[in-house]
Design a protein that fits this description.
The chain folds into 2 domains: about 90 residues, no CATH class; about 120 residues. Helices cover about 40% and strands about 20% of the residues. With about 220 residues, the chain is α+β, with helices and mostly antiparallel strands. The strands form 2 sheets. Strands 5-9-8-7-6 form a 5-stranded antiparallel β-sheet. Strands 1-2-3-4 form a 4-stranded antiparallel β-sheet, with helices on one face. Helix 7 crosses helix 8. Strand 7 and strand 8 form a beta hairpin. The longest helix is centred in the last third of the chain and has 24 residues.
């Protein structure tokens, strides 16, 4: 990740970096007992022994014999990006109970070096591209199933993965100060994804809020 990173470029770098280790992740996952893996990751085991989980409210099934990720319902193989993220989540998960304590990206292990880039394509992007200000933010966050938080002028938490929750907080500007927004993480998030993976989730969350806002505006 570099200081002038862009979300699309960063996502592709993530896929490129993880493509070489997906096979290794699958090999490691095969060594973990299914019940233990389900317990650590918060996934559900279905009758066939496959793992079921949701990513941004979309259901996925991870087969127990080859750890291939497919979309629930359609059975369609998930894109490489999703495969990489979900398998990394499974292999990193250590069962730590989500804390509910929110921290900034800077406070995550390794986050200090990348915080400017992260803020540029998350909170700054949201303020820059969101039409309608705080009202549009609230509406989009609620469309995505966000749960209200007592943070900022408007704040919402989102369940991204079974044991990974993100918050998005918005401060409305006035005549002197511009509006601001920030993505927050539970301080237990690094027990489930490395810093690059968490950065991707923050970018994904902002992108989805912007998309929901745009769709609501034309509905």
């Amino acid at each position: 990740m570099q200081e002038k990173d862009e979300p699309g470029r960063h996502t592709q770098e993530w896929v490129d970096q993880l493509a070489a280790i997906v096979a290794g992740a699958r090999a490691k996952l095969r060594q973990i007992k299914p019940g233990k893996l389900a317990l650590y990751s918060g996934c559900e085991l279905d009758q066939e022994g496959n793992f079921r989980l949701t990513f941004f409210n979309q259901g996925y099934i991870v087969s127990h014999h080859d750890f291939l990720v497919r979309e629930a319902g359609t059975g369609k193989e998930a894109p490489a990006f999703i495969q990489s993220l979900l398998l990394t989540y499974l292999v990193t998960a250590d069962g730590t109970t989500p804390s509910g304590r929110w921290v900034s990206f800077r406070e995550l292990p390794g986050g200090t070096f990348y915080v400017r880039a992260f803020q540029s394509y998350t909170g700054d992007r949201l303020v820059r591209e969101l039409g309608g200000g705080i009202r549009a933010f609230r509406r989009a966050a609620e469309i995505l199933g966000g749960r209200p938080l007592s943070l900022g002028d408007a704040g919402y938490s989102f369940t991204v993965l079974p044991r990974v929750h993100l918050a998005l907080v918005y401060w409305a500007g006035d005549g002197e100060l511009p509006s601001q927004a920030q993505v927050l993480f539970e301080d237990t998030s690094p027990h489930y994804l490395p810093i690059d993976g968490l950065a991707i989730l923050g970018s994904q969350l902002v992108g989805r809020v912007l998309k929901a806002s745009a769709q609501a505006a034309v509905a």
